[in-house]
Amino acid sequence: MSLLDIRMSRIDAGYVHIEKGHHYDVPVQQFSSLYIPQTCHIEVSVEGGAFERVERGGLVGLPKGTAHRLRLPGEPQQARGTIAPPFAALRTRNRMAERVFAARHAVSINPIPDLVPTLISATCAEIAADPRLKSTVSVICELADTGTNTHDAVFVRMSEALALVLIERVMERSAPEGASVDGAFHDMRLRNAIRAMHERPAEDWSLNSLAKEVGLSRSAFAETFRNSTGQTPYQYLTRVRIDAATHLLGTPNLSISEIAWQSGYQSDAAFIKAFRRIVGVSPGAYRRAQTQGAPA
C-alpha cells in the first residue's frame, strides 16, 4: 500500500452553523470527517474521551470515521443533533451561532492506513507554516465559498491532496529528521506496532512488549523496524509521546504532571527532558507560547 493509492470516491462539504451550549454527535461511519472553525474555536471528543480544542482557522480531521462529539464551549451542554449532509439542515437564525466548514469524504481503493491516528489536527500557525497545507485549505474553502459542487472533480482532487498532506504531516512529525515510516506501510506487523504506539502512548512499552504485540522476536522486531523506518522503536515512541503531549498542553485544566503521565512518562523530569530535546523548549514555555498565539 502507498499513500498515493488513497482516493476519494465522493465528498460532501459546506458551511454549517452550530450553537453555543450545544453538542453534536456523529456516529461511527464509513467516511472521514474534516472541520475548520471559521468564527470561533470548537472542541472535539473522540469516542467519549477528553475534548481537544481546535482554534479558529485551525483544522481537525478524523480519517477513520470514528464516532465523535463536536461542541462550542458554554453551559448548559444540550444535545442538538448530528452533523451530516445535507449540511443545510443545520442552518439557524440564531445570531449567536458560529460558522464551521465541514466535510465528509468517502475513501475508496485503499483505506486510510491503520497507523494513522483517529484524530489529526493543525493550528493556524502550523497551517501558515506549511505551504502545501495552506494552499489546499485555502482552495477548498474558496471553492465552498463560491458554491462549487463538491462532487466536482477539482474539489474531489483537492480533498485527496489535503488528505495526503495531513497524513504525511503525521508521518513527518513522528519521525526524527531524515527518517521515514513509509516503509512501515508495506509490513502489516510494523503497522500494528506503530498503531499500538499511537493509540496507547501512555502504556509502559518496551522492546519486548512491542515485539510480542506483533508476534516477532525482540531482535527481529528491532531490526525490521529500523530497516523499514530508519529509526529505533524507542525513537519513534518518543516522538509519538511528545506529539501527544503537545496536543494535551492545549487543555488548560491539565497540569504538566498529568500530561506527563498521560504521555507515558513516570516522572516530570523525564518528560521535561524529552520534550525539551524534541521541541526545543520546556512544556511550560510551549504552553505559554500557544496560549499567547491563540486567536482572540
TrEMBL record:
Show the SUPFAM superfamilies listed in the entry.
Answer: Homeodomain-like
Q: What is this protein called?
A: HTH araC/xylS-type domain-containing protein
Q: Where is the HTH araC/xylS-type domain?
A: 191-289
Please tell me the species this chain comes from.
Answer: Litoreibacter roseus
PROSITE patterns with a match to the protein in the record: HTH_ARAC_FAMILY_1, HTH_ARAC_FAMILY_2
* Keywords assigned: DNA-binding, Transcription, Transcription regulation
**Which Gene Ontology terms cover its molecular function?**
DNA-binding transcription factor activity; sequence-specific DNA binding
Q: What is the lineage of its organism?
A: Bacteria, Pseudomonadati, Pseudomonadota, Alphaproteobacteria, Rhodobacterales
One Pfam family name is: HTH_18
Q: Which domain of life is it from?
A: Bacteria
